[in-house]
Each structure stands twice: as structure tokens, then as C-alpha cells.
Amino acid sequence: MGGCYRTGSQPGSEICTAAEGGKCTECNADNGLFKNPAAAPDAGRECLLCWDTTGANGYKGVDKCTTCETPDKEGAATCIECRDGYFWDNSVKTCQACDEKCETCTNTGATNCKTCKPGTYLKGAQCIDGNSPKCDAGTYADSKSNKCMPCRIENCATCEYLDKINGPKCLTCNEPSTNLLKTEIDGTTSCVVAAKCAVASQPGTHFLSDSNDKCILCSDDKDGTETNKGTPGCRTCTKSGAKPTCSACLDGYFFESGSCVKKCDQSCKMCSAATDATKCESCYPGYFLVESTEPPGKKCVPCDDANSGGREGCSACSNTGGFKCTDCKANYQKEGSQDNYTCKKTCEDVTGCGGIAGACDAAVVDGSGNTKHYCSFCGESSKFPIDGVCVNTGSENGNTCKNGVCTQCTTGYFLYMGGCYSVSTAPGSHMCKTAGEGICTAPSEGSRYFVVPGATNQDQSVLACGNPVGTVTGNKAQSTKAYVGVDGCSQCTPPTDPAANGMMVATCTACEAPKKPTGNGVGCAACSDANCRHCKADEKCGTCNEGFSLEGGKCVSTGGPNLSTGAIAGIAVAAIVVVGGLVGFLCWWFICRGKA
């Protein structure tokens, strides 16, 4: 739309990957585009969208198609893949809807599912309810993948998904008279023979029941038979006929008179006195041991407690021979050597939006120009970005979210880079002042954002003045309009809403110092002249402030006659001669008068 774009960088590379003679010769197929094969394509229409059913020069896309091939003759492109929820039906040459339980399906038919919607699970090629009917024996409903997955626990007959271990937990074993169900302290399970459970009179983490038909954890006291009850907080025990005897406690428990009934301070792994934070002997991960003076003793403090010798953002550390940070929190980036890191904050979500599976690239600029990063995608499909952080299912506050992102927002919220943001609290209040029906209707006063024209509650309705990548509005399968900001811009007026598909650019009115807007407001240029209003290029002024005029790319005062550099130099020399003559005369006068 009136601009020139590079193929090697955004946003030009999003559309075109090669160009010659000012025209695109290769379109970005990964973004759903195909080359217009017309001998002389309309200007700006060398690349067409796979879902553009209007097209140009007799060539067009296919409704709801996302990947396609260039047609051999005038007409529709050859569709390869349809958008999620649809499949390509070659018999009728259209994208048809998948079965209502399928999130995606194969091109062989509506009921041949590839992935399922939340609450259903993939069994073969069908999406079934997670409770009725159940997955086959030896499999379980995996809420992470939405598939019926095999138990994969040797000799396990039935199992279920356990959030705590992020995997299957065995419920019953094959041949239970031989294989005993063994549960570890972390919740993992296995099916073992009696000899793999415990050995009589030898310390171990488990013991055999009186009838040798149960493998019981030393800390498990839930069995109905008194002699088969363990001791809460116990790590290892021995049993020989009578009730098991505890020999060592779990981390965080204090051993006293054969029992583990008192817990150390929550940060202590081992302690010499229960409930006393200054009697720690070793710490849990994430803490380090320091000397305490008031009261005297040793205590565990968090690795990120900078006031006590720790380091901001540190999640794992040691304090042997001096403090060393060995790992950083999920929302911090590690810098420096691997045994002693410094941690740089990169994300406002403490989980880092779910680690490498998530994305924390929703940049928000406050009124002072400070940029912080928030979640645009949550790595766990059951969590969604609300106000820039990933929240659990049930905390969407009326917003429409699934599979780690939000797609539509409610009143008082607006959609921004995959998340819904409230106008009443930061960071949303830095961008938008009012939002009706999920659409930002007015930017915050003095903010660095503008409202996207014509946006719906399924579009991003606010954009930073300095965002050159921009955003699009409209259904990809129907019509698309693009809006972009100006790199380095801090204040702007919004672009107009084009009548047809295309891209519009905001008009920059102020840039980040020391740059200033170009005369037409489509760029920011370095401008060190304080009297310059707009620079047309780096250090070349285009227009001056009031009271100054433009001469040779510089701004000079209009308060008197505008003299050339040579004239100014001549005046300076003359002034020096005059002043010198005056000084000589005064010296002669006073000397001569003194003699007189």
C-alpha cells in the first residue's frame, strides 16, 4: 500500500521471499501464499492468499484453505491443507467440516480425527469421551495429549493419569498374587515381586504386610491393621513380625524417640530442633545456609534474597566458600559462567509461560517507555494468558481461551498478542483506557498505543506506535487488513481503515530521543539539532521549530538577518580589531596622563 519492503526482514519477508525489478518473484508458502501466475499481475497482487476467494487476474484461493499450490490455469488454487476443524474433500474440491469432537482431522474423512477437542481423547482415529466409554484396558486418558495412551508400566493391568507425576499411575497389577503394587514417595508406581519390595529385618523405603500381599511405604499409616501401619514422615524402616520401626525420617522431619512427628522449618532439609528456623543443618533446593546472629544459629534463606547475600532471579545456589548461583528462575535468563550465573529478567510470568513450550513475547511499554514482556502462549494447554500471566482453567474471567491462548475477550478486556488484558489493571491499563465487548475503544492517556481501526473482539484491537511488525484484522479465510506502527516511534495517530484488503501505517508524531519523525511521519531519523521539528534523514532537518528557518539542512534563528559563514567570520575579525585598538588607546591615555 504505497510502500517498499525488503524480502529479507519483517514485515516484507512474511509475504515475499525473493524479488527482482521491484516485483515479488517468490511468495512465502509457509504463510499461506501462492504466486499469481498471470503474465502481468496487478500491482501489489503478485502473491495471493490460499483463502482469498476474490483473487486477481482470474486466479484465486479456496475458502478455509491454509496451504495450497499455484493453479495450472485460471481458477482456484489446488488446496493441500485446510484450517483447523476442516479437511480437504477432493471429490467436491472444498474444505469440509470435521466431526464436532475433532479438533483436526485427516483428508480421508470427517470422522478420521488427528487431534481432539478438550474433554475428549483420541482412540485410534476417533475422539471419545474421557469417562464413558473409557479407554481400553492397559491404556489411560492422557489429559496432556488428549489421547488414550498405553500404561507402559511393566505388569500393570489398569492405570490412570496423575497430575503430580505428569504421567500414568498404576491401579492394579497383572497376577496380583505374584505382582505387588509399589508406590513411591513421589507418587510413581510399579508392579514388583515380594523380594523387590522389602527384605525382613533390613532397612528400606517399604515393608511387606503380615500376609506378604501388600508392599507398603514406610510413611503410609492408612492400613486397617495396626501392625501394617507405617509412621508419617518416615523414610526408611524395618519390620519383623511386629509394627515397622522407623530408622530415618524424610527430609524436613525431625527424628525424636523413634518417631517423625515434628517438622523442621519449611526451608530446612535437616534440622537439630523442630520448628526453629535457626537450627537448620542443611537446606532444600532453592535455599542456602547462612549464619544467624539474632537469634544465633544457622538458617536457610532463598537463593534470590539479595538482602541476605543471595542474587535476584536465582533458583539454585550454594554457599560453600562464598555464594554461587547455579541456576536461574524460569522467567530469568542465565548470564556468565555455568557454576556462578547472574540472572536477567526476561518475563513477568514466574513460570516463564510454561518454559520452552510457551512464549513470552507480548511486549508492553508503559508511559515512561519501559518495556516488559508477558505471555503470548502458555506451554500447558490447560493454562491461558490473562493479564500477561498463565492462569489455570476456570480463571479466564469470562474470556474465551483454549490450547494455551485466548481467541476472544469479554467486556472490560481486550485481545493483545494471544492474551486477554483488563483495562483496570496493569499491564492492560498501560495500553487501553476503555474496552467494550472485548474491543479496545480508546488508548490510555499519554500511552504509546493506538486503537486498530475496524477490529472485532477476535482481533488484536490495540498496537504500539513503535511496532513495525503490526497486526491483522479479519478472518484469514475471508478478508485481511494489516496495520503497522513505525520503528522507534513513541507517539502517533492511528492509520485509516482501508476500504479493501491491504496494509496501512500509523503516522508518527514523536520518536524515542534523540530521533525525530520524518516530515510524513513514516519513519524516525537521528536529529541532534534541538531546533529541528522533523528530520527527513539522519542529521538532515526537513522543517524547523517556530522562530527558525532551514538553511543547508540546519535550523538558524530568524531573530535577525541571516548571514553567511564568511560574513560572520568577517564581523568577528573586525570586532577583534576594534577591541584591540580601544585597549591600546586606553593604555596610552593612562600612561601619558600618569606622566603628566
UniProtKB/TrEMBL annotation:
SMART domains associated with the record: EGF (SM00181), FU (SM00261)
Record's keyword terms, sorted: Membrane, Transmembrane, Transmembrane helix
Lineage top rank: taxon: Eukaryota
SUPFAM superfamilies per the UniProt record, alphabetical: Growth factor receptor domain
Pfam families in UniProt: VSP
Span of domain EGF-like: 46-96, 97-128, 150-192, 217-261, 263-301, 302-344, 526-556
TM spans (from-to): 567-591
InterPro entries in UniProt: EGF (IPR000742), Furin_repeat (IPR006212), Giardia_VSA (IPR052798), Giardia_VSP (IPR005127), Growth_fac_rcpt_cys_sf (IPR009030)
Official protein name in the record: VSP
Species per Swiss-Prot/TrEMBL record: Giardia intestinalis (strain P15)
